Amino acid sequence: MKFLNPKRWYYTLGREKLFELLILAVFLLFFYVPLLHLFMLAFANKYQVPAVIPQEFGLKWWKYVFEQKSLVSSISLSFIIAFITTLLSMIICLPAAFVLARFNFRGRKLIMLSFLIGNAFPRIGLYTSIGIVYYKFNLMGTFIGVLLIHMLGSMMLMIWLSVSAFRSVPREQEDAARDAGAGPIRTFFNITLPIAWPGIAVAAMFTFIASLGENQGTLLVGLPKYRTMPVEMYGVILDYPATAGAVFALILIIPNLILLLLMRKYVGPETLARGYKMN
């Protein structure tokens, strides 16, 4: 088998193509190598710096993490809060998203922009202001207080993506259902909601993921009673070996990966672009 001359290969591929591959290789190196190292640490029984590869592999630290009651309770609490946050966000935000998508009224764009502006400020400063209000209403260290923090952080995703989903529903199908005798509620549940559901499901998925990863607000409002996984991570990093921290980090990543794989049919640049487009 004859090998291609390096110079000939270089000019055949083209300088631009080679540059694109180089950029891609650099991106993959910086993005995936830390994740791969995290994965290795999570299954390392023995690891000493500055080694790159652990000296011994096993499930020692997985067993150790799940034997710590505080860590297991934080995992359960995170999933409970994320589920309730997603459910309540859908109940509250979907009607608002439907109105914003279907009716043109003065101030509509300003209302949508207001959800975006809330995410433009540093979160810690925003949560400090919220904490002052919480003290006045005795919400510090309460489950409702933590839940409200999670919902406030996810409202922009649920509103914007759901508005895009409702706007994608053809008006002709809704009009045809009404002409056939269906009322507004029946039309919504039989026509509008099924067509808009893929976009709404994506919004719900990102809301769930955002709630699982929320840490600053929960740390400020929930301590010492309510410690979710991201909050517990601070203690794991300081008080436990690096391998235990890697296990806990992987536990945070796994449900996100599963959700992304389940929703890969609907998640894409086009969906997000439509969701963040203001009309």
**CATH top level of the largest domain?**
Mainly Alpha
Superfamily (CATH H level) name of the largest domain: MetI-like
Order of helices and strands: HHEEHHHHHHHHHHH
Q: Which structural class should the secondary elements be placed in?
A: mainly alpha
Number of domains: 2
Give the spatial strand order of the biggest sheet. Answer: 1-2
Mean pLDDT figure: 79
Return the CATH topology of the largest domain.
Answer: MetI-like fold
Beta-strand residue percentage: under 5%
CATH architecture of the largest domain: Orthogonal Bundle
How far apart the termini lie comes to 59 Å
Catalogue the unreliable spans.
Answer: none
Secondary structure: helix percent: over 70%
Overview of this protein structure:
The chain has 279 residues and is mainly α. The protein has 13 helices and two strands. The chain folds into two domains: 6-57, no CATH class; 68-275, MetI-like (MetI-like fold). It has a two-stranded antiparallel sheet. Helix 4 runs antiparallel to helix 9 and helix 9 packs antiparallel against helix 12 (242-262). 27% of the residues are buried. The mean pLDDT is 79.
In short:
This protein is an all-alpha fold and 279 residues long. The chain is built from 13 helices and 2 strands, in the order H-H-E-E-H-H-H-H-H-H-H-H-H-H-H.
Features of the shown structure:
279 residues, mainly alpha, MetI-like fold, two-stranded antiparallel sheet, 76% helix, 2% strand
